[in-house]
Amino acid sequence: MHAPEPIATESLWIDNQERPGEFGTFDTPDPSTGGPLAQLARGGAVDVHTAVRSAKRAQESWARLDPNEKARILWKIGEGIMAHLEPLARTEALDVGKPISNARLIDVPRTADTFFYFSGWATKLHGETIPVRGPFLTYTTREPLGVIAAIIPWNFPLLLAARKIAPALAAGNTVVLKPPEEASLSCLLLAKIAAEAGLPPGVLNVITGLGEEAGAALVDHPDVAKVSFTGGTDTGRLIMRNAARTLKKVSLELGGKSPFILFADADVEAAAKAAVTAAFYNQGELCTCGSRLLVERSVHERVAEIVANGAKALVVGDPLDDATNIGPLVSAGHRDRVQGYVSKGDAEGARRVAGGQPATGPGFFVNPTVFDGVNEKMAIAREEIFGPVLSIIPFDNLDEAARIADATEFGLAAGVWTRDLAKAHGLAAKIRAGTVWINTYNRFDAAAPYGGMKQSGFGRENGRAVLDEVTQTKTVWVALS
Ligand code: NAD
Hints:
By secondary structure, this protein is of the alpha/beta class. The chain has helices spanning 45-64, 67-83, 85-96, 100-121, 157-170, 185-196, 211-220, 233-243, 268-280, 297-313, 332-348, 379-382, 398-405, 421-430, 465-469; strands at residues 8-10, 12-14, 17-19, 25-29, 36-41, 136-144, 147-151, 174-178, 204-206, 226-230, 249-253, 259-262, 292-296, 351-354, 369-372, 389-395, 410-411, 413-417, 435-438, 453-454, 457-458, 471-479.
């Protein structure tokens, strides 16, 4: 395992300046060793008020800024992110526990792409002229909402922050970001990169701290126009309830229990290998984790064998090592929760065909675990585990596959693997999930809308769709006589 890092001490970021937190500091551990990694400012309601005031002050001039200039700054932030690829990837690997090779290949470049993509939208947001009865010129404009609170979880802090910040800024809003308490470091670095790229003071502020303190104060603040939240379903419900007090707009990207549906007429070998990546990418700490592998019965045994062997072959280890596939989970508490689901799977009578035994060592590791012979009633098939635990569920025909796919409260994503086009599109139309991947899995692009159905939330991120979430329409009537 890597040697202990010097402990990072970090402040809040308000008005492009570092500020101490009202409640002092709190510590976050290095998930690989369990030792200390960072001491972060613990923000509270007073800090939130200062940040929101700064964001509110900055908003009008940011909204009025020449759209070409806005676009140029957003593009420069993307370039700044790529210029800091290595420190950002290293920070994300250390803080979250994710393999550095993934952070270099996905987290950092996709974060930059998000700023590049939304840079283009800064010059393309316009309204319409509307033919109406009578002698009037009637037109609409797209107005920013004002100050947007962005609240995010720890599994992809940098990328999830970018998905909220970039479209909000392109549309003329300003942002107060509340990063996850478990992993805030890359968000603070992002804010500094943005300031270096020329983002004016107050346009992006970062309040580190605890959800029930800093997060709750943001949701309560009367000058916050919208809460854009990504995180757990229960937290989403609480935030929606609290936001009702001040009638804020809310968008919620919540949990998932996504099915990966493998038919016998697929390229079975390729699909089974893809199922391993779908389940274990980012240690399974992925909202779209393909945590339920539904397999047509005639190929079930062959697939289960490939998947179990694939899981056993994954390299569990130091996230800073290029060869690592699976790093530690983010915290001791989360490791214990995931390990608890392994015990639950055993107790429910599922057949464990890979992993399961607690990993040795001081860090928060869980070995990739595969359960076969799972049925849809078991907790491991219904509840979000958010760790490296896969359930294999056999099915007999398309209707049964569709029924099982829908048998959880979630509706975030699904994968369908078949060579039969009619079957693929038919199932894509039927499945209640915000994203369906056919003969692929976990594809994302800043241009492609993304979000949940059912208890996975509402609102969309990415693409043109998110711009409706961060703007409001104004209608202007001009009498022509
Ligand atoms: P979480 O809900 O515990 O926390 C998310 C954020 O909310 C954190 O920043 C936290 O501090 C804040 N928070 C907590 N209580 C709050 C409150 N009362 N008021 C305001 N803010 C509060 O989630 P987590 O454990 O950090 O992340 C895991 C969850 O995130 C999983 O359920 C996962 O599926 C979900 N997730 C969803 C997506 C998606 O796009 N749908 C993406 C990634 C993760």
